[in-house]
Amino acid sequence: MYPYKSIRLKTIFILLIAASFVYSLCACTPQADGQREVGGKENAAAAKNIILLIGDGMGFEQIEAGRIYNDKKPFAMDGMPYQGSVITNAYIKEIPTDSAAAATALATGNKVVHYSVAMRDGIPLKSITEYSMDAGKKTGIVATKDITDATPAAFSSHAPSRSNEEEIMTCQINSNIDLFMGQGKSKFDPYAGLLTSKGYTYVNTKAELEACDAAKIFATFDFISPQSEHSLSYLTRKAIDILSKENEKGFFLMVEGSKIDSACHANNLEEMIAELNAFDQAAAVALDFAVEDKNTLVIVVADHETGDLILPPDAGKQDLNNQLFHTGAHTSKKVPYFAYGPTADSFSQEIENTEIFVHMMSAFCFEITESRETGYLNLSPAA
């Protein structure tokens, strides 16, 4: 009798330990240290949906310039409860990153050489988009520049260089991603029939998109700007409506404010602020959905800073001018992140760009099945 009791107690004890281990895996929250909470506490349970919004070229100074221009009115992203900074270096950290390497870090959790699109040494790197598809989640890509551009490409294709546009297009057409929205009409028009054969409804105007209730949509436009009727906030709202409709498994959506970067390259502060405001309006749409849904992680982040924008101390609206830019290129400045929703409280105060991928995988309780390169190339001379 006593030996039987002992065996039974040991069995129960082992089962309790196993249950605790399984629970810890399902919680899926990375260790947080030094995080800064600026709002309400969020639930640490796993997320059903993730909306990742990327402000291309958007640094801390760009956001502050926008606040000043908007008469100190806070952005929607300012209300997100967890905020911090992101290190943007690519694999060769001595050279400021480009958008392809930066987006690859966000999409796959890998440091790669410049211009690589979700590839390392000729090998495709599995993205959060592909992990989401494997789990039965719906997926979507939205951008204000061509959808073959570096950032959307890293989340929807694989190519040794961002200049391999035909290869990127082929990947996107065959990707089975549920939704694409962005510029690039002239490039994809010749493939309209092929897209239809792949199950997509191909549309090119807001009216066509508004009338479309298809499950798979490929929407390309000649041009997208803050003044467009098919603005980024509209496209974001439409994408969320489509991806969330009759969907029990959830979705992953990447939204890029692509032209913040373009305006910074041109050292055009007024245009940059217009693009930033349009991007924040899209973030507001995502946040409104997440607040109501209660099961959506929203992350706002930049891929890198562009223009080396430097504001004078105590700058006012009258101080804002194009001369505040100090280059027309990218820099290695740290950039901001903002997070809201399930697992948002697990973000550390300062993170590498590759950690955004890890946080998204953790929020979805996905296992990372491929090895990752998160270090830097050592250019030091041999001893």
Structure explained in plain terms:
By secondary structure, this protein is α/β, with parallel strands linked by helices. The chain has one domain: Alkaline Phosphatase, subunit A (3-Layer(aba) Sandwich). It has helices spanning 2-27, 60-69, 99-108, 128-134, 150-154, 165-173, 185-188, 192-197, 206-211, 232-244, 259-265, 269-293, 354-363; strands at residues 36-37, 49-55, 82-87, 119-120, 123-124, 138-146, 179-183, 201-203, 217-221, 251-257, 296-302, 305-306, 330-331, 335-340, 350-352. α9 links the parallel β8 and β9. The protein is globular, with a radius of gyration of 22 Å. The N and C termini lie far apart (69 Å). The model is unreliable at 1-44 (pLDDT under 50).
Q: How do the helices and strands line up, and which of them pair or pack?
A:
Layout (H helix, E strand, L loop, with lengths): L1 H26 L8 E2 L11 E7 L4 H10 L12 E6 L11 H10 L10 E2 L2 E2 L3 H7 L3 E9 L3 H5 L10 H9 L5 E5 L1 H4 L3 H6 L3 E3 L2 H6 L5 E5 L10 H13 L6 E7 L1 H7 L3 H25 L2 E7 L2 E2 L23 E2 L3 E6 L9 E3 L1 H10 L20
Helix pairs in contact: 2-12, 3-13, 10-12, 11-12
The helicity comes to 25-40%
Mean pLDDT: 90
Which CATH architecture?
A: 3-Layer(aba) Sandwich
The major β-sheet equals: 11 strands, mixed
CATH class: Alpha Beta
Kindly state the number of beta strands. 15
Identify the CATH homologous superfamily: Alkaline Phosphatase, subunit A
Q: What is the total number of structural domains?
A: 1
**How does the overall form come out from the CA principal axes?**
globular
Secondary-structure element order, as H and E? HEEHEHEEHEHHEHHEHEHEHHEEEEEH
N-to-C terminal Cα separation, in Å? 69 Å
Note poorly predicted spans: 1-44
Structural class: alpha/beta
Task: Report the C-alpha radius of gyration, rounded.
Answer: 22 Å
Remind me, CATH topology? Alkaline Phosphatase, subunit A
Helix count, per DSSP?
13
Task: Please indicate the percent range of residues in DSSP E strands (runs of 2 or more).
Answer: 15-25%
